[in-house]
């Protein structure tokens, strides 16, 4: 299959065509307010947040905004741009799966273009695409599509996503979409940088608030921002309409029209559009215009009511127009609609004389319907018109306007009646029927040639006579001569949609006989069937009908196929055309309960597919509990059927965390210890590895083996540990899982649990072992690791259980207190000190106390806690002989310096190398704030180091620390002080080292101090 065909199979939604149609309606100069909005720029260009929501009233221009953003992303930003318009003007395809399919298609198109530029294509994704959309596909459900989209999402960073009209989805699908957005965009990594714009009314169906589903989403409302655009729209529309018919010659009145419409619009373009249409359609003098302006409706609903009042309710064709615009699967072309309203169910032939003129079709509904100039298709002025009609059914505002389900059926029944016209050779009185017994190869022989031998050996017995053919009766219809198809403008719609729109047809329908004939008769001239048969035989036709009926959940068609009895049994277990699964498997995988109930009457419940999966495997894997219950009700069901990899339905259910299904199958005596051939895991091991706690608990309650080992010798506990499933580990330990297994290093395991802060696991360990002071390869204890990680509660558990508070690690000889201090964990430090930890304990390598470490790292709060608990502020380290104050001064920890000085630390303490004071160190490193604090607390500005005899001012001048020089001079430092080795003043050092700013400071001080 070529790439174009594969992409078309992913989604038939032509996103570019829809975008071109909608963007053509946008007026130049409008929507700029959004593109210039600070929040939009922060989302679009600066990428400061990943989600943005543009909300607004019905008809406030949100779709036009979407078109502008899409074009800006494509042509200005140059980012991959993926989008979907939820128009809500047809009854087919508007669900979250259709949206995902289109987004997947667009991402695949982008990746294909990149692949041609020698960019790698993600092989895992390519495999999934071929699996679900290739020649032998498995129809994807929502979970499949979500997985594929997630993979593509992570493989295409910095992508702009736009979804317009989220409120057009029903509650279930809107919720699913928003949950997916939250999953991908709120938890996205900073490197991903993809962003999404959602456009909708303030609330989507079911009173769902987008802010609730996507925390932190930035919102921009159209309400206060579109008035300038509406003004532009009014001006442009009046100019355009005056070209066709001048409303008035009075410029003052025209200006009044402009001002009134702008003032009353409430930010709704749609309201303005309808008022303009009504004015031009009904006002033919200035008095009428004045009257209309005085009585402008206040809302859209009031406007729609006025349109309804202008309709001729006696003309039955008006109702037909409203029904077709409401319930057609896609908007009808004006020529299609003309034919659709011309005929009745009783008609038997096509007649051009009955077809009304285009002007009537458009004008009969008083501005509620419009012909889109971009594609000549008829739509409501806005999707809210249909919602108004649905709400108004109870008030009977349009007599005979049906509920949605009935409206769809009535459209479908008309399609059946249309296709039954004598023009298409299906009338009983005119059709030519041939009944013939023809040799048809046995489906068994066909299957044995196409399916793997191992599968067919179990599925079918070898026919006694391989040369014997199966006879079948079928109807074949030919038309005497090929007619002019172009003459019948409604024909293509009828052929495509008669089956889709008759899912609710009943045998009591006046159209049932024609419907049944249409389903069961070949028409070689017209080919009215939406399904593709595998050949020309009756069996192939029946097989195609069966597959389509199941895939589309078409019970009436399936009941017709069911009536074929023995012929159906021959083909019902074969893979469907274009699919790799038989009918029962497809229904089980997709959760089609009604289909399963019918299929069980004639399909083999244990028939395997190419992977050896039965229908129960598919239902169990997806967690379809009702389907599993139906399948298990069959007396012939094998609950422990093995797939090619020896996986049972229970194994798959456990793997995917479907508790109810696992429980059901266990009650049906399914084996809970069966191991698959690939991983050699039991259901318990698999559930533990996947972190499905409820399933783990259920299996343990059913007596599952706690210490079973897989191919790598891993127990369920080991599997859970590898995947870091804390609660699963805790659950297994509570049920007696053995920690001392060959595949599990108990020390590494407990160190890991401690570092992660998994208190429950640590508590269980403390309860079941005596050795709380086991050490890892670095010689560190659990307490040491917990202290470093800052897990206070874990620390308490270990200490309460008797862990050694003074245990030192092998490498550096540091106590748990030192590890906690170094990492600034104040709460943990307090716990350790309360337990009796030595506040003066020194590490082996540096001889530093906890206070020294706290000063080095600048942990002010920890320094205070240590001092409050008696830590010596004058303690010196082993290597340099520095005090905490010296370290804090050198490392610029001003707050720590203050705390130490307040506690009485000696600010003139010298170390054992160059013997500099803290002030000297701060001056050397240019730490102005620390220098200032030390001077304020009495530090000597003339203190000299032992080796060079240099004052703080000399050091600051040498290194060019202008700010420090200034502070020292302000605090009386001697600008004429000389060093011991060269006898040079600060000024000479600054000149020699090229520090111009310091030179100026020192010169100024010298001149001001001269006599």
Automatic annotation (TrEMBL):
Keyword Transferase listed: no
ANK repeats by residue range: 611-631, 645-677, 679-711, 712-744, 778-810, 812-844, 846-878, 880-912, 914-946, 948-980, 982-1003
Organism domain of life: Eukaryota
Domain GPI inositol-deacylase winged helix: 320-391
InterPro entries: Ankyrin_rpt, Ankyrin_rpt-contain_sf, GPIID_WHD, NPHP3-like_N, P-loop_NTPase
Keywords: ANK repeat, Repeat
Entry-linked Pfam families: Ank, Ank_2, NPHP3_N, WHD_GPIID
Domain (Nephrocystin 3-like N-terminal): residue spans on this chain: 29-201
UniProt entry tagged with the keyword Kinase: no
UniProt xrefs under PANTHER family: ANKYRIN REPEAT PROTEIN, GH09064P
Protein name, UniProt field: Uncharacterized protein
